[in-house]
Each structure stands twice: as C-alpha cells, then as structure tokens.
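ok trying again, last paste got cut off:
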Amino acid sequence: MKSTPLRRRLLSAVFMLGLTVSATLPLQAHAEGKRKVIIDDDIGGPRAAQLMALQSPDVEVLGLSIVSGSTWRDENIAHALRTLELVGRSDIPVVPGSAFPLLNTEETTRRWEALYGKLVYKGAWMDGKWPDGTIQSQPNYHAHDVVPPLPEGMPHTKPANEIAANFMIRKVHEFPGQVTILATGPMTNVALAISLDPSFAATAKEIVYMGGSLNPHQVLPSKSAEQFAREYINTPRLEFNFRWDPEAAKIVLRAPWKHIVMVPADPSTATELSAKLLNDMTKSNTQMAQVVKKVTETGFPMWDELATAVWLDPSLISKSDQLYVSIDTDFGAGYGNTLSWPAAYAPPGLIASPTTVVREVNVPAFEKLMIKLMNLPTPALPAK
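nice, full thing came through this time. structure:
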C-alpha cells in the first residue's frame, strides 16, 4: 500500500499516544452499574445494530469507534455522528479509527482476484456492479476521504479528538473487567489496541464479534436470501469482515480474552429485514423510528443486529459450539478464510482461546426483542 499523509499521521498518533497510555491510566475499581460497551463498527447509517444497544435501559454505550469496511471510515463517522444527533445522544463520542486495513489493500485484492477469481463482495473496494439480477442497491464507489451526501442528512457535530485504539485502551483501564467490545465491522481498531497495550484484551470483560463463517446455507425462501447465500455455495469459509483485514482478525483472536463470542454469517441466513419487520420496528412516533423507516433498505440478513442481540440476551442462542478459531493469512486461494477446530482436533501450539460460536438463534424471540427496543423512547441523557 502506498503511504499517504493521512495514513502516516494516523499511525504516528497511535504510536505516540500508545507509548504512554498503559503507564498513565489508573486501574481503579468501579462499582458495577449499567453494562458497559464500546461498539466498534463500519456504520453505514442509522441501523438497529447500534440503536438496540443505545435503546437498552441497562446499557451504557461508552463510545462508537469507527473503522472502514463496508464503506470508508470518514463516511462511517458521518453516519455515526448523524445517528447520535437524531436520537439525542451526541454525548456519546464517535471516535475515528483506522481508514485502512493493516496489510490488505485494494490493489492487493485485485491481484488476488486475478489469481483466484472475483470476490462477491469487497465493501468499500466495490468498484463495479453486483452480479446481474441482484435486487439490492448498487455499490457507491468513491475515494477513502470522500463523504457523499447522507440519506439521513449531514451531521452538525464533530468526532472525538482521539484515536479509536487509544480510546478503547483508556476506557478498558478506567473500568477494568467491565467493558464489552462489540465488534461488528473489521477488527483493525481492536488489533491496534491489542498491539499497543498487551494487557488490553485481558483487562476487558469480553469481546462479542460478528465475523467469519463456517458453513452458511440458504434458509429462507426469498429472492434476497437466495442471492445472499450464493457466495457461500462455493466459498463457505469466506466472510467479508475477516477478508477485509485478515491480519487484524488473527491478532484479535490470538489475544487472551476472558470470554469470546463469535457470531459468524451462519445464523444470519435465517434472518431477513423484511418490509413487515421494518414496519413493526418503527411504529413509534420517535424521530429515530421515523428516520430508520425512511432510510433503511429491506432484504438484508441481519448480521450485526444478531451480534448486538445475543450480547443483550444470550438466551437467544439456540445452538452453539465451543471451538478454537483462527484465520488463514497466507496469500493463497484461502486468504481470509475462517479456520476452526474443536478442542480435540486443534493443532499443537495453536495460539487461540476457546470461543462460543453461535450456530443458530431463536429468530422469533430475536425479532421480538428488536421490535421492543426500537419502539422504546430513547433513554434520557445521563445526569451530569
């Protein structure tokens, strides 16, 4: 990847701030209160995945840390800021993270495709159209530093003057053993936090992430479900969040977390944001509900929403496995593929922690939770 001034400034700031963060942060015990979470995501607009956590009365969202993935970081920052404005929660910081993966690049991905065939989805690198007949909106390809007009309107507030990795480290040490990292985008920011502070993962409460795939297959009969399932027919272990930044995902999964929950693509194939579900989610007269109803495109599996939901209510998980999980980072045909083993078959010397891998969820209960939370009044601002 060619070094850009923006990239050099970002990495320099991460390095300089990270050198002192572990030495200066107090490790004080705090009284247990609301469940604390940092949502690390490539936010593409006002979505239930983030809003369910914001709407939960027993949850304190410490911040939204932003990464590139489905769309570029700067556009995602604008979406996050505007989302918080619309729900009256601009007190929650939006923290810029990495604009680029650790090693992977658009140019490298094109070289890979020349050797091994076209990827169905490349996120912000989608420079062409979907395959013929795809009913979802066509990708909006643009440069990393371009923020196009947002359907929900442009934000009036500004992001935090901090880097996501350092924000995560600071908050985890401020509330040791209490902070969940809810990672629903590529894991670049989390990997940088781990690299800067080796105690980061062990000091957090847990990580719950959407990423990877084992053996997804079409469950629902809709045209959208058929189209989203087609990529897994021939590449069942290839999932976008892992593929965007495989090296970051490997760093994260090798870290000593106390608890890891993986929500792969597999359970999402039993979900779909239908027109009826969207209508049921947005029956209230709140500004949030009306904006979500206006700007949300139906027909998509609910990948990130599932990750948020099973963190909010683990009883939604109807089937899971305990596996050791890693990622193929060799630049071959399997680059970015999910690797997994039960304990008895894990290779000797594997650096990984046991992971709860969600296979299936109670979809009616999941939808009921989402409908309930999305129609609640937005919780009042915390008292100062």
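cool. Residues 1-31 have pLDDT under 50 and may be disordered. Strands lie at 35-41, 59-66, 94-96, 179-183, 206-210, 260-263, 317-327, 338-341, 354-361.
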